[in-house]
Each structure stands twice: as structure tokens, then as C-alpha cells.
Design a protein that fits this description.
homodimer; 306 residues; Nucleotidyltransferase, domain 5; six-stranded mixed β-sheet; 34% helix; 2-dehydro-3-deoxygalactonokinase activity (chains A, B); DGOK (chains A, B)
């Protein structure tokens, strides 16, 4: 057993590498542009070598789309309910350059809807490393994930394509076409959130066109349309989460994501009387270490306390 | 007062021209590719001249995006409630080539949501010309419209961007990317409709990602993903319409649109226990004549009986 680890957070558009010390804290990290859709000429092996160059010959644990059908090697999803221990028992080991042992973390599959995640299971493990009693979790983003847990086990989850829908409407739809450069407009965002909240069981999908009508009315400045749409879509996600029981007003739900995006969700949640609180940074790095520890690749306490 | 009329159905991507006889039936029609986004070098006047070439110097009535901000001349929307008589009182006359008198039909603005339509008000007038007692109406399409009427007056309406969302997801999203050529799959369509119906108050927006999960599961053939998405989105539109009171299971709702699309809506409606029945073709041509009659541009009975 070695005294350290290399972790790779390897998604569609990014590759981040972490060199851990024996205590589970990242000593060094690197960001490379070699997501699995943007590989260098030498493909996965070359991207891998760039990521770990000059680092010791430690075991390497990787999560994310690198284990998908279009990745280095497909690692089957594990059905829910699944926790960290079960993830650790199903790592796939593949041959990697420079004598490294490379292990891939499987994604999760929820048979209820059905739904899938790949990469987020490791972020969840990172949250659990600090807060083992977590029962709800939100990971906002291109494909937002709402997660329910029991005793550290993911029981079910739902993906909402809020970020991708926003991008589609902004770049390709009649609502976003020919707009001037967007400017931040907190009032327009709030108006969109409120419209989604007021849509009731009908939902806010039928309100998208109001972005155009409000602009034609002169109520919404064209430069504020993107923030109105952002509010409408994030509001619709929260409306759905409350209607489907992914969230309720009694609990504060931890949130893992980029700061400005989490801030938008937090502001929208205020309108719904819902409490979302951003979890500490570094969940993917923490989760890789946590899973490596459960797999016996490194010695580590089960909970990160710092 | 002349004994006939020329009607123009002038949208973003199409221009259709009708030459009517004195009895309100189209003697001849033409389809030109000169929607307002695809004008010839000579702009609106040249497109107009092409559309009416060799026809008598009759008054011309035009509806659709030709009266929008990006059209030949902007014609302000009329607020609901508005019926045919009020539309006819607010035609805008503009100078047109070749000695023609050209009148533009205003669109409608619903202050409730807010919402707008331009072109559909004339289709509605066409439906009313045959069925004056119509109280509900669905115009499915890129921007579907659900309409409520009282005594032939449009009281309110809602736009659902179902067709545009389908196109965005199909062409630009992760769900539609890299799919093989689509094939018709009635089972996949039905599965999508059923999923939307089963989504309850949460709505089907949170189920979009299931298209990907079902494909990864091998349940959905990649070539059937478009029909699943079509079912999911049309089903969501119907779920919304029922939740918001635009439709209920007691009435048969007439539907104005293209045959294959109306057939999809009819099949989806069966799953919801909702009755949608396609109205006769030619509603725009009928509506232009009906509005022209109300404006005194032509003599005509209020109801088309054939």
C-alpha cells in the first residue's frame, strides 16, 4: 500500500489531476483541456501522461466520463441504492502508461425514472466524507442532480437539464436570437423565478414564451432576457423539486457547484422559502480519496475532519 | 366595393397568396418562399409583386409576421378580449406596388401572462367562420397556442414552445446529438406521452434526461429517441393544458394544424382521455375573407356554410 494517491476528475470538457499526500490532502493540482471530447493526438494515454507527468508512481483513481461508453473504457453503472463501499468494490482497473495502476469509478444508475450519473457519485462521496449524515443534496449545473441518501447510501436521484436548456434557448431559440450582449439583471432574474413559482402544477414550460412577450411589451429590456430565462428555468427546477419531494422547506439542502451558479440557486430558493447552502469546495478531490480509502488503495480515516 | 379579394398569409418562412372569387372561395393560390426572413433582393415590395402578379387590382389583406416589428410595417397588437369585428376595425393600410391597397391584420396580446400571437388570430377567425360557437381551440406547432373564446371573442390564450423545444433538443442537445437517422416509432412516442402523463404536478421537464438513460439502458433504440422526445414534449403540453384549465376531458377541442402533427396530438390526447378533433383545412384563407368582410372590403355572409 502506497502512502499517497493521484486522482483524476475526467469529464467531457475538462481533466483535473490531484496529487495527494499521505493525509488525503491535495499537495498539487493541475487543470488540462483534455476532456474526453478534446483529447490530444495521442488519445487517452497521452492525456493521462500529461496529467501525471513527473509525479510519483502512485495508484491513480479516476472518475467521470472517462468511464463512459465514449471514454477510455466503459465501466458499467451500478444500480441504486449504492454507497461508497459498493463503489469501491467495483472499480475497474486498466493498463495505463508509465507503470501506473489506473482505476475507474463506476457511475450510478437509478432504475426508478430511469436516470444516470457519472462523476457526481464521487462528488457525493466527497460530501459524505465531511458530512456522513447528509440526506439530500443538490448538484446544480448543465445537468443538475437532486439526490436522496439514507445512511450514506444514494437511494435515488433525478437529473434536470436546466443548464443545457438555458444554453439552447439562449443560443438557438427565437427567445435568445438577436439579443444584445446580456447584462446582469437581478430584477429580471427574480421576476423569472416568481413567474415559475406562480405557475403552480402547470409548470413554467408554458411560460417560456413570456420572455418574448415581456420584451415586446417593453417591460423586459432585451439585455435582461437571459437573466429572466435563467430565473424561469431555475425556478421551474425548484418548483419541480418541491412538487416531487426532492426538497422541502424544512431542511437546509447542501449544494455542490460553482460559486456564481450556487448563488443564483440560493437567491431563487429564497423566493420559494427553501434553504440551499453551498458545501465546501473540493468535493471531487475529497471523494476520490474517500473511495480510494474504501478500496484499500490508501490508508485513510473515513471522515475528513479539517 | 370590389367583388373579390386577395389574401396573404405572410409568416417568417412562408408567403401564401389566395385569389378569392366573390363568394369567398379561393379560386387560385400560390406558395412562395419569401417569408419575412427570406425576402428577395427587392424586399417586401418585390415579394408582394411576385405574390399578386397577373391578378386583378383587388384589395389585399395580409396576416402574420409581415405586421411584426421585423415586418413590412409594425401593426400594434390588440389586447384581449378581441373578436373579428375589432380586428377588422384596426387594420393598417400601407402603400403597396401596382396600385394595390394592402391592409395588415393586427396580432393579439394577452395581458394575463403576458402572451402574443400574430397570424393565429386570422386562423381563429377562419374557425369561427364555420363554427361560431367555438369556445376552445388548439393550434399545435412550433409555438402551440391554446385559446379560450366566449361568444366568438378571444378571451385569453397561452403559447407553448413545444415544436421549437423539440427542434432544439433534437438538433443541438446531448439527447439528440449523434443519433442515427430517426425512424417512426409509435411505441416510443406512446412511452414518452405516458411518462409525461405520469409525471404529475412535477411535470415532464425533469424527465427529459430519461431519453438518454433509456437509450443507455438499451430500452430505447437510438433511432427511436426523437419519437420518445416528441411524445414527452407533446404529453407535457397536454398535461399542462389540463392542469391550467386550457382543456378538460368533457369537451372535444378543435385543432388547427398540419395533418401529421395533429395526428400526433390526437394520439397523445387518447392517453390523457382528452378529445382533439382536427378542424377543416383552409382556416387562414377563410379567416382573411371573414375579416375582410367584417371590414367592409368585400360583401360576404358572416358564416361560411360549404
Amino acid at each position: 500500500m502506497s502512502a499517497g494517491l493521484i486522482g483524476l476528475d475526467w469529464g467531457s470538457t475538462h481533466l483535473r489531476a490531484y496529487l495527494y499526500g499521505a493525509d488525503g490532502h491535495a499537495l498539487e493540482s493541475r487543470a488540462l483541456p483534455h476532456g474526453i471530447r478534446q483529447l490530444p493526438a495521442g488519445g487517452f494515454p497521452e492525456a493521462f501522461s500529461s496529467a501525471v507527468r513527473d509525479w510519483p508512481a502512485l495508484p491513480v483513481l479516476a472518475c467521470g466520463m472517462v468511464g463512459s461508453r465514449n471514454g477510455w473504457q466503459e465501466v458499467p453503472y451500478l444500480d441504486t441504492p449504492t454507497g461508497v463501499e459498493r463503489l469501491a468494490q467495483h472499480l475497474t482497473r486498466i493498463a495505463a502508461p508509465d507503470g501506473h495502476a489506473l482505476y475507474l469509478v463506476p457511475g450510478l444508475h437509478d432504475t426508478h425514472r430511469p436516470d444516470v450519473m457519472r462523476g457526481e457519485e464521487t462528488q457525493i462521496a466527497g460530501v459524505l466524507a465531511r458530512e456522513p449524515a447528509t440526506t439530500r443534496l443538490l448538484l446544480p449545473g448543465t445537468h443538475s442532480k437532486w439526490v436522496r441518501l439514507r445512511d450514506g447510501i444514494v437511494t435515488d436521484f433525478a437529473t434536470v437539464m436546466t443548464g443545457e436548456l438555458y444554453g439552447l434557448l439562449r443560443q438557438h431559440s427565437i427567445l435568445g436570437a438577436a439579443l444584445p450582449e446580456a447584462r446582469d439583471d437581478a430584477d429580471a432574474f427574480r421576476r423569472g423565478v416568481a413567474a415559475a413559482r406562480g405557475s403552480g402544477p402547470a409548470g413554467a414550460l408554458s411560460l417560456l414564451f413570456s420572455a418574448r412577450a415581456l420584451m415586446l411589451d417593453g417591460v423586459l429590456d432585451p439585455a435582461a432576457v437571459p437573466d429572466y430565462l435563467s430565473g424561469l428555468l431555475i425556478g421551474e427546477e425548484l418548483r419541480m423539486a418541491l412538487a416531487a419531494g426532492w426538497a422541502d422547506a424544512d431542511d437546509a439542502i447542501p449544494m455542490v457547484g460553482e460559486g456564481p451558479l450556487c448563488d443564483r440557486y440560493r437567491r431563487a430558493a429564497d423566493t420559494f422559502g427553501l434553504r440551499l447552502a453551498r458545501a465546501p469546495d473540493g468535493t471531487t478531490a475529497d471523494g476520490l480519496w474517500r473511495i480510494a480509502a474504501a478500496a484499500g488503495l490508501v490508508p485513510a480515516p473515513a471522515t475528513i475532519t479539517s
